[in-house]
Amino acid sequence: MKDTRKYQGIFPAFYACYDDNGAISPERVRALAEYLIGKGVTGLYVGGSSGECIYHSVAERKLVLENVMAVAKGKITIIAHVACNNTADSRELAAHAESLGVDAIAAIPPIYFHLPPYGVAQYWNDISAAAPNTDFVIYNIPQLAGVALSSALLKEMLKNPRVIGVKNSSMPVQDIEMWRDEGAIVFNGPDEQLLSGLAAGAIGGIGGTYAVMPELYLAIFRLFGEGRIAEAREIQDACCHMIYKLCAGHGNMYAMIKAVLREMGGPDIGGVRAPLTQIQEEDLPLVKETAEKIQELVEKYR
What we know:
Elements lengths: L8 E4 L13 H14 L3 E4 L11 H15 L4 E5 L5 H14 L3 E4 L9 H13 L5 E6 L1 H4 L5 H7 L5 E6 L4 H9 L3 E4 L5 H6 L4 E4 L6 H12 L3 H18 L6 H11 L20 H18 L1
Parallel strand pairs: 1-8, 2-3, 3-4, 4-5, 5-6, 6-7, 7-8
Helix pairs in contact: 1-2, 2-3, 3-4, 9-10, 10-12, 11-12
C-alpha cells in the first residue's frame, strides 16, 4: 500500500508569474514559491488552470517547473500538471517533471475532441509511462475540459499502479465519495467547498484561490482535523465571500488575485496572459477592499 501522507493538506495552485513584458519570469516564480513555502502549505500544484497552462508553450512550462523545484524540492510536496492537447508534448513534460524529482504528475483529459473512455485511458497511460517512477493524479474538471471522469474509467485507470487518485474539480461532492469508494485518494478542487470535500473524504485540497489567502484554508484543514466543524464552517463561509469579490471585477479572477496579492505586500507576479482580461482601473477599489478584508480575516482566524 502506497504511503500517501505527503498528499494530506493544502496545495495552492501555482499562478503564472510574468515579467513586465508578459514573459515568464524565473525570479518571480521563485519569489512566489518561497512566499508560499513560508506560509506553511503542504505543497504546490504547478502548471494547472491557475498557472494558465493552456496559454504556455512546452518550453515555458518547463521553465516554470524548473524554478519552482529549484526552491521547493525536498521542502514541500510538488504535483506537476503536464497535460497538453497532444500526447507527445504531454509525455515530454511528464518525463521532464520526473527528471526534476516531482512527487506526482497530473493530467486533464484531452479537450476539444471528445475521446471515448478507452481513448482517454490510453492518453493518460501513455503520459504515465513517460514518468514510470512517479505517482499519477487524474485531474477531473468536466466544466472546462468537456469530459467527465466516470467510475468505469477510474477503475480502468487504477489498474495502472502509478495512479494514486483524483484532483476532483467537479461541483458535486458526491463525486469525491464515489472516487474514494473506488480506492483513489481525492483532492477537493472547488475552493468554495473545501470543508464539504473534506467531510466527504478528500485527503486535502488543491485550489486556485489558496495562494492569496493560504492561512484561511490551512485553518479550515486544521480545524476539520480537530473536529471543530462549526469554526471551520465560519472560515469557509468567509473564504466564499472573498472568492465572490475576486470574481466581481472586470479583470479576470487571476488578474484580481495577483493585484490583491501585491496590495497585501506579497510578491509582484505580473498580470495575466491574453486572452484573459487584465486588471482595469475600475477594479482598483475592489482590489483594495478585498485585500483589506483578507488581511482582517487572517488576523482573526490565524
